[in-house]
């Protein structure tokens, strides 16, 4: 985080708010810090007919999910959270480089109950959307 904004939040984006995706504007003018990947401890699913991604932490069979890191002001962060689909919740994720960031996760229980497809091996949300269009 920059010294000028000690209350800013580092957020890992891996879905429809990525650059080039339809909800990127939900980040408003957040500062793009670079591309990143999670540590290999997560799974990625296509939730509600591919409407949005659902990621969750797992102790087995995890992968590194590709995404982007942004620095958001408290106001930008609150707005972003308010635009997220139902059942998503903010939580810290471990990044491949050993750092942490906040990401929007989805309950594994709901993914399993609804049989949402696992798209972990496709190469991320943008790759999935390109393949399914």
TrEMBL record:
InterPro entries xrefs: AH_C, GGCT-like, GGCT-like_sf
The segment(s) forming the Allophanate hydrolase C-terminal domain are 10-129
Q: Where are the transmembrane segments?
A: none
Domain of life, per UniProt, equals Bacteria
This chain belongs to the protein called Allophanate hydrolase C-terminal domain-containing protein
Protein species of origin: Leptolyngbya foveolarum
Lineage of this protein's species?
Answer: Bacteria, Bacillati, Cyanobacteriota, Cyanophyceae, Leptolyngbyales
